User: Fold Endonuclease/exonuclease/phosphatase family protein from Gaetbulibacter aquiaggeris.
Amino acid sequence: MKKLHLFDKIVFVFNAIIATVLLLSLILPFLPPKTFSFLSVLSLGVPLLILLNVLFFLYWLIKIKRQLLLSLLVLFIGYVFHGSLYKFSTSNDIKIDNPITVMNFNVRLFNLYDWIKEKDIDFKIVNFVKSENPDILCIQEYHPNSRIDFSFFKYRYEKLSGKSTRHGQVILSHYPIINSGSIEFPNTANNAIYADVVKNKDTFRIYNIHLESLKIDTDVEKLKEEGSERLLKLAGTTFKRQQFQSELFLLHKRQCPYKMIICGDFNNTAYSYVYRKIKGNLNDTFKEAGAGFGRTYDFKFFPVRIDFIFADDSFVVNKFKTYDDHLSDHYPIMTSLSLE
Assistant:
């Protein structure tokens, strides 16, 4: 520090703060929000913290200063515990006959309230799904209306709530559904549903989860209007509810007698407590076969991945794709699986 110019000293102070916060955030998946609600808010900012530490590392690397070791060490620890924020290449790209393709998509009520200033978003979503033709489709924030026609799926299970605007989750399948049901989350429109699907002689369960939303507008001007104290309190309360909802889900999951695939919008990142608990020993299909940042939510500041597809070890993950089609505030994701 003594040999650094004043500007570099200031940069290193900020570097040390950001590195320390990132290091602290790496233990968040192990801290229940009910006990550490304030710290749990950091899980949303981990991608940004990683990117900032990369920038600090590059800054010191260009200057050929040993201060680069701080961010390098923290980034290395993060990589060991959580893997890379960015996937440089797909792990698998296996061509197999008759794979099981599973898509997850939060459709935001098919643009019911014209959030996207474009006509016929609902038709475009249906046509998009039809063109990609997944074997199984999990939708969050589904809103039925006469314009929505998913009749090209032979089997379905949906669970709706609400009075004026009925909405909820749905599972659509080309394979027969022999059993289905809902895991109710109290005092919310969010829930989890499941369907037991049969392909040939194999039966497996599809879960579709939608955890509590932060209900925060990510528009910059709208964020400025919100007080930081209120935002932190809201996020902490939301993450507590997410923990309770995930605990209800896990009670049901433990009794499942079948191989399973879990889809959903967790409204939280891969650095969160609920992600770690719900994933358990399942495989995150993005980590197995995805590429890039895997962004699934239209956040204005940095890439955020809050929608997931997990599969247990009975499935081989062949492919994973994150789509760029802007038909909702979420982006659809799809994986290709095969049974061992």
Observations:
- The first helix runs from residue 6 to 25.
- The chain has two domains: 6-82, 100-339.
- The chain has a mean pLDDT of 90.
